[in-house]
Amino acid sequence: MSVIRLESVSKTYSRRAPRQFLRSYLFSWLRPVPHERYYALKAVSLDLREGDCLGVLGPNGAGKSTLLSLVAGLSWPDAGKIDVHGQVAALLELGSGFHPDLTGAENVFLNAALLGFTRRRTLEKFDEIVDFSGMRDFVYEPLRTYSAGMMLRLAFSVAMAVEPDILLIDEVLAVGDQAFQAKCIGKILALKRAGRVLICASHDMDALRQLSTRAIWLDHGVVLREGPAGEVIDAYAATLSGNSA
Amino acid sequence: MVRSGLGPEHHGFFFAMRYRNYGFLLGNLVLRDFRIRYRNMSLGVFWSLLNPLVMMAVLTFVFTKIFPNPSIRNFSAFVLCGIVPFNFFSVAWVSGTLCIYSNSRLVKKVVLPREIVPVSTALANCIHLLIQIALLLTVVLWVGNKVNGYWLLLPVIFGLEVVFVCGLSMITAALDVYFRDTRYVVESANTVLFWLVPIFYPLDIIPTRYHAIYQYNPIAAVVLACRNILLDASAPPPTLLYKLFFVSVLSFVVGWLVFRRLKRGFADYL
């Protein structure tokens, strides 16, 4: 059964800065000027089944983050159809639910709640989360004293404890050190074996090669290539080395 | 969870509630606001008491020494009945208006029904309100009033005020995403309301033809009902309560619908 299904989904943004003056709103009601719009994503179709892991490749501004936020349901497509079956956990930005003045432990609770935990489950999982992050010594310190890497460890550990049906990751893995990255990849592979679906946008080809079963290469909102992970990643990597040569 | 069609987000708040229990999240968001507000403050919760007490002292000075009104006994208790509901309203409305903008990272990057943000902001301010109500009751008893059965109406009356503020905040919070000047409109409206809510004057001195309009303002209605209950030990007039109920619920329903309509664009405009 397909868990995530996108049918020719498009997302456009207005090319002009959004008008925020009342005067221009009034004028545009009186004399509507068609906005020039550009496509952040153009007619993207996807079909992901249980155990699929999709790597999303492409240069900056290709539409990778837009794709993830559409699947997460955070923004709305302008055309097309999106079906998502299951609980979504999204790591789209490093520590987006974190507050610097709260302690690590308080942030774990807040983020567990944001990711859909109940109170009981958070209490059960708390030690596991802290151990996975390796932040035991700092967990009662305010988050503002943490480094970016430490924050990532905590954020990622909470997200991994959710064991969501669908996990969306947007280029946040890169902050962790080698050992932690390896640990995360191990955990994600375990999720994959359990039949969960993963979408991972990254510039880290090696990580994507390890994780993905399929891949999609986006450029200016258009799918340039889609298929088995190895093929697509090789093709994309080839253009990169071609450019630098 | 199945999301389909052109509108993927969450089909709506109640759909989301059925799918997963948001009580723990709501509690954590309220706790977060509360902790952030009082952490790193040497006086902590006392700030909630200090502000109304200072206002009470200043207004009591002005309206007993400069413009005395002999018809009001115990001006300090009288004016505090006005300050507490108004203070809560203005603080909750301003923070409610800013809530989407100031939680933009949550709204843009975390999967959650967006309604929970204004609702939790309003509830976080309720902790503030409870402290101030405790202060109000203490002062009312201090100046010689007695507990009476109508006190049981107080939770309903203040509850309706919270509902009203919540609805109003949903409208202004959603608008503030698209027009950042909404916050200044709200601040100015608060200044105007300070004079239009009977905080330091009684309803009697207002010409009767304006009474009906006054009562349609839920904040004025809460103030008047508080004075009936706490100072006169009498039941507030039923028409006053009906109007309070009607306007509060209407504001919440309209706020909910406006918010639901406008939340689709939040991620694109923040």
Summarize the structure.
The complex is a heterodimer of chains A (245) and B (270). Chain A is of the alpha/beta class and 245 residues long.
Give the class-level CATH name of chain A. Alpha Beta
CA radius of gyration of chain B: 20 Å
Q: What fraction, in percent, of the residue positions of chain A are helical?
A: 40-55%
For the terminal residues of chain B, how far apart are their CA atoms? 26 Å
User: Which superfamily, in CATH terms, is the homologous superfamily of chain A?
Assistant: P-loop containing nucleotide triphosphate hydrolases
Helix content of chain B: over 70%
CATH architecture of chain A: 3-Layer(aba) Sandwich
Strand residue percentage of chain B: under 5%
Shape of chain A: globular
Number of helices of chain B: 12
Rg result of chain A: 20 Å
Number of domains of chain B: 1
Reported for the largest beta sheet of chain A, the result is: 6 strands, mixed
Count of spatially separate domains of chain A? 1
What is the average of the pLDDT values of chain A? Answer: 85
**Residue-averaged pLDDT of chain B, rounded?**
88
What fold name stands as the CATH topology of chain A? Rossmann fold
Query: How would you describe the shape of chain B?
Result: globular
> What is the string of SSEs of chain B from the N terminus onward?
EHHHHHHHHHHHH
Intertermini distance of chain A? 44 Å
Low confidence ranges of chain B: 1-11
